[in-house]
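My current task is to audit a protein record that another person submitted. I have pasted the whole thing underneath without changing anything:
***
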Amino acid sequence: MKPIRNLSAISCSLLASLALSWALPSYAEQVIQSQKHDIHYNAFNTMMVTPDTAQNYGFTRARNRALLNISVLDAATQKALPAVVTGTRTNIVGQVLPLDFQQIKEENAIYYIAQLRFTEEEMWRFELQIQPDLNAKPIPLKFSQIFYLEQ
């Protein structure tokens, strides 16, 4: 994971893109909750991110690229927490690929972003391990998503 430091204008743009992706019906908010943590996750096409945001954060914007976004919050305070995030993705024919998460740290938020390529109507199964507390077992997160090329 490579930390990225404070970039205020870019931060707003990325946050707006992430918020937009959660607001759209096809990108409903997804969260798993425990007594101590709320883990929010979603995946969306990189074309939803502005060109400036993509350039400043080092994302490749393309019709066949997506971002997987993970954020961990303290369940009681709703404050962002750092975590170790690892995982893989598996396609329908069983090809397993590791995910490389990049930490994006904002003033009041921490995101873990992995980039991935896909083909039209390709489904990927994600298996993640999220560890906000290094003295506790990682929290498993499994989900599937079909990706579509942006027009």
About this structure: The radius of gyration is 15 Å. Confidence is low (pLDDT under 50) at residues 1-13, 15-27.
